[in-house]
Automatic annotation (TrEMBL):
Domain DUF2007: 16-72
Native species: Hymenobacter artigasi
Gene3D superfamilies registered for this protein in UniProt: UreE, C-terminal domain (3.30.70.790)
Source organism superkingdom: Bacteria
Pfam family, one: DUF2007
Name of the featured protein: DUF2007 domain-containing protein
Length: 146
């Protein structure tokens, strides 16, 4: 059994800015926390899904209160012309939640799982470039959904 002062993983974020906003909200509420993988994801954003994104850690005794603060109000997402191109064509402007784990750390973009149909598979072979469908991807549990 772990002690209440042990550090636990709370949430992961695709973008360092969203992770810093969540960290700031927790610190403003008096909950000490820290981020890991922030520099790696800032320098190499394509490694975010591989490393599990920017990870937010808190003490075990503060975990429940921290989750209530974070899930009480969604962490704002970046918007505007400088946002990644995959998010610009998201079908729903409201940040969706993962149906499996309920996390709001979800992005819309090219699917990572095999989503080839007959025509997209044929086009991918002819173009020698994968033509994939787009889906929502949860960076907390890895679930993909439409």
């Amino acid at each position: 059994m772990s002690s209440p002062d042990s550090v636990v993983f709370l949430e992961s974020f695709y973008e360092p800015m969203a992770a810093n906003l969540a960290r700031t909200r927790l610190e403003a509420a008096g909950i000490p926390c820290f981020l890991s993988n922030e520099n790696l994801v800032s320098i190499m954003p394509l490694y975010s899904p591989i490393t599990g994104g920017v990870r937010l850690h808190v003490r075990q005794s503060d975990a429940e209160a921290a989750l209530e603060i974070l899930h009480d109000e969604a962490v704002p997402r970046a918007t505007g012309p400088d946002i990644a191109s995959f998010a610009a064509d998201a079908p729903d402007p409201v940040t969706p939640r993962c149906p499996r784990c309920g996390s709001s750390d979800v992005a819309y973009g090219p699917a990572t799982r095999n989503t080839y149909g007959f025509w997209s598979g044929l086009l991918s072979v002819l173009l020698r470039f994968p033509v994939r469908g787009k889906r929502f991807h949860c960076f907390h549990c890895g679930n993909e959904f439409k």
